[in-house]
Design goal:
The protein is mainly beta and 171 residues long. Helix content is 11%, strand content 35%.
Length: 171
């Protein structure tokens, strides 16, 4: 009787230890999900102020993607990360590097950091007329980027916004 009970106890202990080391694949949605993390600085000079010393900011955000199909091979020119200037809706696109599927579930997560060059200050007068760059009558402007990404299946992520970046318009 003791040997039978000891055998059952050993089997239960083995099963519990085995279950502890089983890794469950992540359960992410098929469309990418992004979350703003940081900008490298909160103040930047606008483009024409110093052409010899251009300014930039690093924007970082995290991502998850349930089917793990982010980025494109180096030979493919397709872009998949999109930045839109909230002030005038002007945008820029970047290419994400190809991300290899990971594990059995192929769900992936990570962090993306992108260097964005400075841009011009924009001012809208009371009549609705916009001026930009060296023609603005103000000394500062505030810039916020709206960001989305797209995976290879065409699924588009949620939109996130950076924290405000103060642009120095005039020295």
């Amino acid at each position: 009787m003791k040997n039978g009970l000891l055998g059952i106890l050993c089997l239960a202990l083995f099963a519990a230890l085995t279950a502890q080391f089983c890794v469950k694949p992540p359960d992410y949605p098929l469309e990418p999900v992004i979350e703003f993390k940081s900008v490298s600085k909160s103040v930047m000079r606008q483009r024409p102020l110093s052409p010899a010393d251009p300014d930039s900011v690093v924007v970082s955000f995290t991502y998850t993607d349930g089917d793990g199909d982010l980025g494109y091979p180096a030979s493919d020119p397709t872009t998949s990360v999109f930045f839109r200037d909230e002030r005038d809706l002007f945008g820029s696109e970047r290419k994400l590097p190809y991300v290899d599927p990971q594990g059995a579930g192929n769900g992936i997560s990570g962090e993306i950091s992108v260097v964005l060059p400075t841009t011009c200050c924009i001012h809208t007068n009371p009549e609705g007329i916009k001026t930009a760059c060296e023609n603005v009558p103000v000394t500062t402007d505030t810039l916020v980027y709206v960001i989305t990404i797209r995976d290879r299946a065409g699924n588009v992520s949620n939109e996130i916004k950076t924290s405000p970046i103060l642009l120095i318009c005039k020295q």
